[in-house]
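User: C-alpha cells for this one?
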Amino acid sequence: MSKKMIIVLVIITILVLGVCFLISRNSSRRYFESELKDDSITLTVKVPVLQMSSYKDKELYDAYTFIKRAATAFENQYKNANVKINVIQFAKADEDDQIIGCFNTENSTDVLYEEYMNMSTYIHTGKVVPLDDIITEEIEEDINDNYWEISKLNGKTYMMPYLGMQNTLCYNKDMFKECGLGKYITDKDIIQNWSLKDWDTILETLHKKLPDNIYTMLMYGKNETGDTHVITLLRSRGSTFFESDGKVKLNTKEGIAAIKWLMDCNKKGYFPANAENIEINDCYDLFLNGQLAIYINNPVLEASISKSNINYGQVNFPSIDGKGFNTTFLTGFEVFDNEDEEKLKVAKDFVKFIYETDEWLDYSVGAIPCSNKVAAKYADELENIQKYIDNVENGWNFTGNAPAWRKVRSVFYKDIKELLYGEKTAEEIAILIENDCNKAIEDGYSNSKLHE
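Assistant:
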C-alpha cells in the first residue's frame, strides 16, 4: 500500500471518529436534557437516631454517619447534575412530624432510611414510589426472596432491604439439664427447632421441676413492646394471623387453638405471675437473674446475654410443621415523590448507587446483611451470626404491611391483657382481637392511597 493511500485512510479514520464523538456527545446531551433539565438538585435524606456498627468501619456508630458518607460519595461521582444531599437525623418520637408533617414543604423527605416496622405505614400515603425500576437482576438475585416479600405490597417493591435483625427464643441450658431435658440441647451454635409435642413436654417438665420462683417462659401484656413475639406465638397452631387482604383472621380453628394454648400455659403457671402487668424488659431481667427459662435472643441481645455467663441455646418460635418461626426486622430505604421528576430520578439513583457500589453495600456487614454476596465476602467476620443468616427462610412479615400498624399495636396488647386475665373464652378473645385490629386496619385503609 502506497504512502499516499495510508495518509488518506488515516484522514478518513480521523473524520469518522470525529463524527462518532459528536454524535455521542449530542446523544449524551440530549439524554441529559431529557432526563434532568435542572443541573443543580438538592435532595433531603432523613434517618432516625439508629445505632449501627460495621466491620467495614469499626469506628462507625450510627446510621446517620453511614448515610452521610454515602451521600458525599454519591455527590462526588454523579455526572448528570450537581447534586447536594442534606442528611437530616431526627428523634424516633418525631418521625411522623419529620415525614408526614413535612409533606409538600421545602423540608419534604426524598429518601428515608428507617426500620420497616415504622416506615411501612408511609406506603399508604401515596407518596412512596415503587422501586422495581431500579432493581436490576443482579440486585434481585443478591437478596433473599423472603426479604423481598416483606418489602412488597400488591406485588410492587416499596422498600429496599439493607440490614436485617432477627429474634428467636433463647433457653437456659443449665435449667434444661437440671430438669432432665438434656436431649433437647445441642452444643452446636445453631438455631434449633422443636415440634409442638416437644414444646409441650419441655414446658410441662420445666414447670414441674423448677422451683416455684422460677418461671418457664416469657409472657407480658403491659404495653405494645414485644407484641410481635406474641403475634408469632399465635401462629403456632397453623394460623397465618393475616389474611391475603391484610386483615387479621384469628377466629379460626388454628387461631383459637393457639389462644387456648397460651391461656392454658398461663393457667398452669408457665408464665411470670401477673404477666398482664409486666413488659418484655421485665422478662429480660428475670432471664438474666436466673428466674426465667425461656426468653428472646437476637444478635444485639446475645452480646449482653453472653456477658451474664448464662449457658444458653437458641430455638425458633413454635410452629405446627416443626420448622419454627423467627420475627424478622428489616431496615432499608424508601423514596418519596414530591412532584419533582428530576429530584425523584436522582433520589432513586442515590438508592441504586448504594446497592451497586461494593463499598457502601459492604457497610451492611455488622448486623445481618441482606446482601448474600456481602455475607459470603465477610463470612469469617460474620461467623457469630451465621446461624441467623441460615435461619432467614423462617422469618415472616409480622406487620402484613397494614396501613395503620401502630394503631393495630395500640389495641392488640390490650386484648392480650384480656387473654391473660382469663375471664373470657378463647373464642371470645379471637373475636376481640379480630374486631379491634381490623377496625384499626379498616380505618387505615379508608385513608390509604398507593402511589400512581
